[in-house]
Write a structure and sequence with these properties.
GO cellular component, one term (chain B): mitochondrial inner membrane
Shape of chain A: globular
Keywords (chain B): 2Fe-2S, 4Fe-4S, Electron transport, Iron, Iron-sulfur, Membrane, Metal-binding, Mitochondrion, Mitochondrion inner membrane, NAD, Oxidoreductase, Respiratory chain, Transit peptide, Translocase, Transport, Ubiquinone
CATH class of the largest domain in chain B: Alpha Beta
Radius of gyration of chain B: 25 Å
Radius of gyration of chain A: 24 Å
Strand content of chain A: 5-15%
Number of helices of chain A: 8
Number of strands of chain A: 5
Cofactor (chain B): [2Fe-2S] cluster; [4Fe-4S] cluster
Largest sheet of chain B: 7 strands, mixed
Distance between the termini of chain B: 61 Å
CATH topology of the largest domain in chain B: Rossmann fold
Helix content of chain A: 25-40%
Strand order of the largest sheet of chain B: 9-8-21-20-19-10-11
Number of domains of chain B: 3
Oligomer: heterodimer
Catalytic activity (chain B): a ubiquinone + NADH + 5 H(+)(in) = a ubiquinol + NAD(+) + 4 H(+)(out)
Helix content of chain B: 10-25%
Subcellular location (chain B): Mitochondrion inner membrane
Number of helices of chain B: 15
Structural class of chain A: alpha/beta
Strand content of chain B: 15-25%
């Protein structure tokens, strides 16, 4: 009898855990291996555009000629901006050719950094911070609001190709949590921007999305009208007087 | 409940990784992988094929190739030994045997001229796998894929019984007594100068000694070893050995490869060259048909024209050799087959002279042999009397030579094939005498640097097969020209008289005189480009040609 009850209890506990396990999240946007598709395969020709060729030269000039492989991250970033926010495998091969390393060395870098997207993203890629301070301040609600408004799942692109929502780890704006970052790939590498929208609310993110859809540029930074940058709401409350010079700083006397 | 729950308590997400397809040799069970990156380092640092990498990050990290790609290295099997957890295992050996059932026999490999040290793991009469044995002077701790996976060829296409071809063209199994009687009878019917013997590329020194003695006793001196060409230069050992030594190649800082593709011909020597390129920044110049290297190299040209330019100092690479501290020139044994080989050698020797390649403290003038038997054959003096001995043969004794041009053999010649595999030469044979393969006998081999090593029997012979030298000894008795040795010790005493270096086991006997004292060649050098000595790395001899795994490698890894 006791045994049966214990077993029952165990099953309940297990059930509870199983539920939470299903909610476990995956941060990576793609698999760690490549599957050929019509728009992403090694046979697809890929070149840096005319105006980006100059940028490639400039990036390479920043590194010694025997350490060309140092340029792999800036070049992948440039390739991502040029290719509408993601890097096809043929672009990685092109970068490998330019920095003179084996392609696998570039694949390693591109799969390591979550900022390199290896599947298609929207023209505006919305990245919700999911790290603890933002999560405490309600980043899950922000993400839910975005996903519900756009009618997509995470890492899915809207039908019009304009938006996609992803998650990122801490972007260093904890004082203005919660926040989202918007990567704008709508105008190639020329018009590329990567802006932070801080102190957002579920209502405000939807407004931001709608402004972006109309082609407007919503003001980035904190979205709380009562704050200046990372300052406290309603103006400073401490350190109001003129700053005093530090005591005992008579350097001559030392 | 007394013994706990029957269900696991692990309720988290279980991490699992997709298995990769790395080709017919390496099986992957990637969930076992602990991301130690030993295989990645091996592939990029030693094998020189940058296929593997570490993909992803954190808990999603995994080893893979990212794009669908097979591991196209001739050393790929070594990642099986390196993997600490069995994520990369041997595909042919997986689930075939437990390793406590296996008997290990320390032997050497004969599929190329390196003589890699191996351990043959066998279960009963079957070779189950081949593993490398540490020998820092020869193969370090690696072996090539051909060495490791050729063993399934030992189970297929084997010759079991002595056979005689009947008038209808079909082979009929007979007893040893009958077969030897027929051979001895025919041998006495032909003139002594029409008796010709050819040793194969897998022959051991003992059997070549016996074959040469038998033919000499019959009055013929037309005995050769395949791969050594028509008129081999056997007078000076330095003319056919890797004089620098395999291990000392690491010290070289400039290489000139003449008509040799070490990656295909001797993968372990190639690993040494790669080591020198990585650590000494050695320059590598290559003359020969276009081929792939797994280190930085310069393709200087395709034929003797480039060689002449270097000899005359007109080529930019000639200064690279002259300025090098330890220059090494490696000539491929494929050049032995050329008519003008003496002229080619003399041009190379003039380069060596001018670049000071041969010094008291450094001998950088090398020949890279192709086959396990070649060095011992030349040590024992298997040099045919005339150039076209096979064309004029009436009685041809083929001891495992399968790459002969069968059209050259006259149609009225009586052909005896002694060997372990029903390979190409069997089609022309009149009598078949089955012999044992290298895993089944004790045999002496000299590798390309002149190091004498020994195979040991790991498994019993197949069917009615006998050791090569014993067959020849028996035949001599039947033919009435009894050879004076009855045991391996006796035949080694005889070898000691001809080539004493073949008795100092596991030791390298360097050549005493340098080949720079050779007389001037008579023939002019022709300008025909050098040819590739080996077309297919995976299939070079009768064992590897019978191997299913090697056939899969050929089909999957060599397709372009």
């Amino acid at each position: 009898m006791l045994a049966r009850r214990a077993a029952q209890r165990l099953a309940e506990i297990r059930q509870a855990f199983r539920h939470s396990a299903q909610a476990s999240r995956s941060l990576s946007t793609a698999l760690n291996y490549h599957i050929d598709t019509p728009d992403n395969n090694p046979n697809m020709p890929w070149k840096f555009s005319e105006q980006n060729q100059g940028k490639v030269k400039e990036i390479l000039s920043q590194y010694p000629s025997n350490y060309k492989q140092s340029a792999v991250i800036p070049l992948l970033d440039l390739a991502q901006q040029q290719h509408g926010g993601w890097i096809p495998v043929s672009a990685m091969n092109e970068v490998a050719r330019i920095v003179e390393v084996a392609p696998i060395r570039v694949y390693e870098v591109a799969t390591f950094y979550s900022m390199f997207n290896r599947i298609t993203v929207g023209k505006y890629h919305l990245l919700v911070c999911g790290t603890t301070p933002c999560m405490i301040r309600g980043s899950r609600d922000i993400e839910d609001a975005l996903l519900k408004h756009l009618g997509v799942k995470r890492n899915e692109v809207t039908k019009d190709g304009l938006f996609s929502v992803g998650e990122m780890e801490c972007m260093g704006c904890c004082v203005n949590a919660p926040m989202i970052a918007v990567a704008d790939y709508s105008n190639g590498s020329e018009g590329y921007s990567y802006n932070y929208y801080e102190d957002v609310t579920p209502k405000r993110v939807v407004e931001i999305v709608e402004m972006l859809r109309k082609g407007e540029k919503p003001p980035h930074g904190t979205q709380n009208p009562n704050r200046i940058k990372a300052g406290p709401e309603g103006g400073n409350t401490t350190l109001l007087s003129e700053p005093q010079p530090p005591p005992c700083r008579n350097l001559e006397a030392c | 409940m007394a013994f706990g729950s029957d269900r696991g308590r692990f309720t988290e997400m279980k991490r699992s990784v997709v298995d990769k397809n790395l080709g017919p040799l390496v099986k992957t069970v990637m969930t076992r992988c602990i991301q130690c990156t030993r295989c990645v380092r091996f592939a990029s640092e030693i094998a020189g094929t940058q296929d593997l990498g570490m993909l992803g990050r954190g808990s999603g990290e995994e080893i893979g190739t990212y794009v669908e790609k097979l591991m196209t290295s001739e050393l790929s099997g070594n990642v099986i030994d390196i993997c600490p957890v069995g994520a990369l295992t041997s595909k042919p050996f997986a689930f075939k045997a437990r390793n406590w059932e296996l008997k290990g026999t320390e032997s050497i490999d004969v599929t190329d001229a390196v003589g890699s040290n191996i351990r043959i793991d066998s279960r009963g009469p079957e070779v189950m796998r081949i593993l490398p044995r540490l020998n820092e002077d020869v193969n370090e701790e690696w072996i090539s894929d051909k060495t490791r996976f050729c063993y399934d060829g030992l189970k297929r296409q084997r010759l079991n019984d002595p056979m005689i071809r009947g008038p209808d063209g079909r082979f009929k199994a007979v007893s040893w007594r009958d077969a030897l009687a027929v051979v001895a009878e025919v041998m006495h019917q032909v003139k002594p100068e029409e008796i010709v013997g050819v040793a194969g590329k897998l022959s051991d020194a003992e059997s070549m000694m016996a074959l040469k003695d038998l033919l000499n006793k019959m009055g013929s001196n037309s005995v050769s070893c395949e791969g050594n060409g028509v008129q081999p230069q056997a007078d000076l050992r330095s003319g056919y050995l890797l004089n620098t030594g395999i291990a000392d190649l690491e010290k070289a800082d400039a290489f000139l490869l003449v008509g040799t593709q070490p990656r295909i011909e001797a993968a372990m020597v190639n690993a040494r060259i790669r080591k020198a390129v990585r650590s000494n920044f050695a320059k590598v110049g290559y003359i020969g048909p276009a081929t792939e290297f797994n280190y930085d190299s310069e393709h200087l040209g395709t034929g003797p024209q480039t060689l002449l330019e270097i000899a005359e100092g007109r080529h930019p690479f000639s200064s690279a050799i002259k300025n090098a501290k330890n220059p090494a020139i490696i000539i491929g044994a494929g050049i032995f087959e050329r008519e003008d080989k003496d002229a080619v050698f003399s041009v190379v020797e003039s380069i060596a002279k001018s670049a000071n390649v041969v010094r008291p403290d450094w001998n950088g003038l090398n020949v890279l042999l192709l086959h396990a038997a070649q060095a011992a054959a030349l040590d024992l003096g298997l040099v045919p009397e005339s150039d076209n001995s096979i064309e004029s043969a009436k009685f041809l004794y083929i001891m495992g030579a399968d790459d002969l041009n069968l059209d050259k053999i006259p149609s009225d010649a009586f052909v005896v094939y002694q060997g372990h595999h029903g390979d190409q030469s069997v089609y022309r044979a009149n009598v078949i005498l089955p012999s044992s393969a290298f895993t089944e006998k004790e045999g002496t081999y000299a590798n390309t640097e002149g190091r004498t090593q020994q195979t040991l029997p790991a498994v019993p012979t197949v069917g009615d097969a006998r050791d090569d030298w014993k067959i020849i000894r028996a035949l001599s008795e039947v033919a009435g020209v009894r050879l004076p040795y009855d045991s391996l010790l006796d035949i080694r005493e005889r070898m000691k008289m001809v080539a004493p270096n073949l008795l100092s086991m596991d030791e390298r006997e360097p050549a005493t005189f340098s080949s720079l004292i050779k007389p001037e060649p008579k023939k002019e050098m022709s300008m025909t480009p050098f040819k590739a000595a080996i077309e297919n790395f995976y299939m070079t001899d009768s064992i590897t040609r019978a191997s299913k795994i090697m056939a899969q490698c050929t089909a999957q890894l060599l397709k372009k």
